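Data availability (excerpt). All sequences and predicted C-alpha coordinate strings are deposited with the supplementary files. A representative entry, exodeoxyribonuclease III, is shown inline so that the format can be inspected without opening the archive.
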Amino acid sequence: MGRETKETEENRKTRHKMVVVGPHVSIITLNVNGLNSPIKRHRVAGWIKEQDPTICCLQETHLSPKDKHRLRVKGWRTILQANNEQKKAGVAILISDKVDFKAKQIKKDKEGQYIMIKGTLHQEDITLINIYAPNTGAPKFVKQLLIELKEDINNNTIIVGDLNTPLTPMDRTSRQKINKEIIELNEKLDQMDL
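C-alpha coordinate line:
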Protein backbone atom coordinates (compact mmCIF):
# COMPACT_ATOMS: atom_id res chain seq x y z
CA MET A 1 0.00 0.00 0.00
CA GLY A 2 2.82 2.43 0.86
CA ARG A 3 4.49 1.79 -2.50
CA GLU A 4 1.26 2.51 -4.41
CA THR A 5 0.81 5.78 -2.53
CA LYS A 6 4.39 6.78 -3.35
CA GLU A 7 3.88 5.97 -7.07
CA THR A 8 0.59 7.87 -7.14
CA GLU A 9 2.28 10.87 -5.52
CA GLU A 10 5.11 10.70 -8.11
CA ASN A 11 2.55 10.54 -10.94
CA ARG A 12 0.73 13.57 -9.52
CA LYS A 13 4.01 15.51 -9.32
CA THR A 14 4.87 14.52 -12.90
CA ARG A 15 1.42 15.55 -14.18
CA HIS A 16 1.75 18.86 -12.33
CA LYS A 17 5.12 19.47 -14.01
CA MET A 18 3.60 18.75 -17.42
CA VAL A 19 0.85 21.31 -16.84
CA VAL A 20 3.48 23.92 -16.02
CA VAL A 21 5.42 23.12 -19.21
CA GLY A 22 2.46 24.17 -21.33
CA PRO A 23 0.39 22.81 -24.18
CA HIS A 24 1.33 19.65 -25.99
CA VAL A 25 3.19 20.18 -29.27
CA SER A 26 3.54 17.48 -31.92
CA ILE A 27 5.73 17.71 -35.00
CA ILE A 28 5.59 15.33 -37.93
CA THR A 29 8.02 15.24 -40.82
CA LEU A 30 7.83 13.48 -44.16
CA ASN A 31 9.84 13.33 -47.37
CA VAL A 32 6.98 13.48 -49.89
CA ASN A 33 9.16 12.99 -53.00
CA GLY A 34 7.14 15.49 -55.03
CA LEU A 35 3.70 17.05 -54.70
CA ASN A 36 2.90 17.88 -58.32
CA SER A 37 0.35 15.08 -58.62
CA PRO A 38 -3.15 16.02 -57.36
CA ILE A 39 -3.66 12.46 -56.06
CA LYS A 40 -0.45 12.62 -54.03
CA ARG A 41 -1.33 16.05 -52.63
CA HIS A 42 -4.74 14.70 -51.60
CA ARG A 43 -3.13 11.69 -49.86
CA VAL A 44 -0.61 13.88 -48.04
CA ALA A 45 -3.36 16.30 -46.95
CA GLY A 46 -5.38 13.33 -45.64
CA TRP A 47 -2.34 12.01 -43.76
CA ILE A 48 -1.74 15.43 -42.18
CA LYS A 49 -5.38 15.70 -41.08
CA GLU A 50 -5.30 12.15 -39.70
CA GLN A 51 -2.08 12.77 -37.73
CA ASP A 52 -3.36 16.19 -36.58
CA PRO A 53 0.05 17.60 -35.61
CA THR A 54 0.84 21.06 -34.31
CA ILE A 55 3.51 21.40 -37.00
CA CYS A 56 4.05 19.44 -40.22
CA CYS A 57 7.39 19.59 -42.02
CA LEU A 58 7.68 18.33 -45.60
CA GLN A 59 10.78 17.73 -47.68
CA GLU A 60 11.27 17.24 -51.41
CA THR A 61 8.03 19.01 -52.33
CA HIS A 62 9.30 19.69 -55.90
CA LEU A 63 7.14 22.82 -56.08
CA SER A 64 8.04 26.23 -57.45
CA PRO A 65 7.79 29.41 -55.34
CA LYS A 66 4.41 30.27 -56.91
CA ASP A 67 2.89 26.86 -55.99
CA LYS A 68 2.03 27.70 -52.35
CA HIS A 69 -1.66 27.02 -53.06
CA ARG A 70 -0.78 23.35 -53.74
CA LEU A 71 0.18 22.93 -50.08
CA ARG A 72 -3.18 24.03 -48.71
CA VAL A 73 -4.65 21.75 -46.06
CA LYS A 74 -7.82 22.71 -44.21
CA GLY A 75 -6.84 23.69 -40.66
CA TRP A 76 -3.24 24.62 -41.55
CA ARG A 77 -3.33 28.14 -42.98
CA THR A 78 0.22 29.06 -42.00
CA ILE A 79 2.40 27.68 -44.80
CA LEU A 80 6.05 28.63 -45.08
CA GLN A 81 8.22 27.19 -47.82
CA ALA A 82 11.53 27.34 -49.65
CA ASN A 83 11.49 26.18 -53.24
CA ASN A 84 13.71 25.90 -56.28
CA GLU A 85 12.61 27.45 -59.60
CA GLN A 86 13.28 24.12 -61.38
CA LYS A 87 10.85 22.22 -59.11
CA LYS A 88 13.67 20.32 -57.39
CA ALA A 89 14.15 19.83 -53.66
CA GLY A 90 11.76 22.10 -51.72
CA VAL A 91 10.82 22.20 -48.04
CA ALA A 92 7.67 23.40 -46.32
CA ILE A 93 6.38 23.95 -42.80
CA LEU A 94 2.65 23.93 -42.10
CA ILE A 95 1.43 25.16 -38.73
CA SER A 96 -1.96 24.23 -37.33
CA ASP A 97 -4.61 26.91 -36.92
CA LYS A 98 -5.27 25.42 -33.45
CA VAL A 99 -2.09 26.94 -32.01
CA ASP A 100 -0.94 30.45 -31.25
CA PHE A 101 2.09 30.82 -33.53
CA LYS A 102 3.73 34.07 -34.55
CA ALA A 103 6.67 34.10 -36.96
CA LYS A 104 9.36 36.66 -36.15
CA GLN A 105 12.08 35.72 -38.64
CA ILE A 106 12.34 33.43 -41.67
CA LYS A 107 15.54 32.35 -43.41
CA LYS A 108 15.61 30.12 -46.46
CA ASP A 109 17.73 29.39 -49.47
CA LYS A 110 16.86 29.72 -53.16
CA GLU A 111 17.61 26.04 -53.80
CA GLY A 112 14.82 24.84 -51.52
CA GLN A 113 17.19 22.90 -49.26
CA TYR A 114 16.17 24.50 -45.94
CA ILE A 115 13.87 26.90 -44.17
CA MET A 116 14.34 28.29 -40.67
CA ILE A 117 11.55 29.94 -38.73
CA LYS A 118 12.02 31.81 -35.48
CA GLY A 119 8.87 32.72 -33.64
CA THR A 120 6.67 32.08 -30.66
CA LEU A 121 4.42 29.10 -30.11
CA HIS A 122 2.02 29.61 -27.20
CA GLN A 123 4.18 32.60 -26.15
CA GLU A 124 7.31 30.40 -25.95
CA ASP A 125 10.29 31.09 -28.23
CA ILE A 126 10.90 28.41 -30.83
CA THR A 127 13.28 28.02 -33.75
CA LEU A 128 12.38 25.36 -36.29
CA ILE A 129 14.74 24.29 -39.06
CA ASN A 130 13.49 21.97 -41.82
CA ILE A 131 16.30 20.56 -43.97
CA TYR A 132 16.40 18.55 -47.17
CA ALA A 133 20.07 17.76 -47.72
CA PRO A 134 21.24 16.94 -51.26
CA ASN A 135 21.87 13.27 -52.01
CA THR A 136 25.57 13.87 -52.65
CA GLY A 137 27.69 15.69 -50.11
CA ALA A 138 24.92 15.67 -47.50
CA PRO A 139 27.13 15.61 -44.37
CA LYS A 140 29.20 18.53 -45.64
CA PHE A 141 26.04 20.46 -46.60
CA VAL A 142 24.41 19.96 -43.19
CA LYS A 143 27.61 20.87 -41.33
CA GLN A 144 28.02 24.07 -43.39
CA LEU A 145 24.36 24.99 -42.88
CA LEU A 146 24.67 24.54 -39.11
CA ILE A 147 27.75 26.78 -39.13
CA GLU A 148 25.85 29.44 -41.11
CA LEU A 149 22.84 29.28 -38.77
CA LYS A 150 24.93 28.98 -35.57
CA GLU A 151 23.82 32.37 -34.23
CA ASP A 152 20.16 31.38 -34.63
CA ILE A 153 20.44 28.00 -32.92
CA ASN A 154 19.75 27.76 -29.19
CA ASN A 155 18.12 25.41 -26.67
CA ASN A 156 14.69 26.17 -28.20
CA THR A 157 15.75 24.94 -31.65
CA ILE A 158 14.22 21.89 -33.30
CA ILE A 159 15.89 20.52 -36.41
CA VAL A 160 13.92 18.14 -38.61
CA GLY A 161 14.07 16.88 -42.15
CA ASP A 162 15.77 14.48 -44.48
CA LEU A 163 19.51 14.79 -43.86
CA ASN A 164 20.35 11.98 -46.32
CA THR A 165 23.04 10.98 -43.83
CA PRO A 166 23.24 8.05 -41.43
CA LEU A 167 24.36 9.76 -38.21
CA THR A 168 24.42 6.59 -36.09
CA PRO A 169 24.92 2.88 -36.79
CA MET A 170 21.16 2.42 -36.31
CA ASP A 171 20.52 4.83 -39.21
CA ARG A 172 22.60 3.02 -41.82
CA THR A 173 22.45 -0.21 -43.73
CA SER A 174 25.26 -2.74 -43.51
CA ARG A 175 26.59 -1.41 -46.87
CA GLN A 176 26.88 2.19 -45.67
CA LYS A 177 30.10 3.28 -44.02
CA ILE A 178 30.74 6.11 -41.58
CA ASN A 179 33.17 8.34 -43.45
CA LYS A 180 35.22 11.37 -42.41
CA GLU A 181 32.45 13.84 -43.39
CA ILE A 182 29.90 12.04 -41.19
CA ILE A 183 32.34 11.96 -38.27
CA GLU A 184 32.95 15.71 -38.70
CA LEU A 185 29.19 16.37 -38.86
CA ASN A 186 28.62 14.38 -35.66
CA GLU A 187 31.44 16.32 -34.00
CA LYS A 188 29.79 19.61 -35.06
CA LEU A 189 26.41 18.40 -33.72
CA ASP A 190 28.06 17.51 -30.39
CA GLN A 191 29.98 20.81 -30.31
CA MET A 192 26.71 22.73 -30.83
CA ASP A 193 25.00 20.53 -28.22
CA LEU A 194 22.43 19.28 -30.73
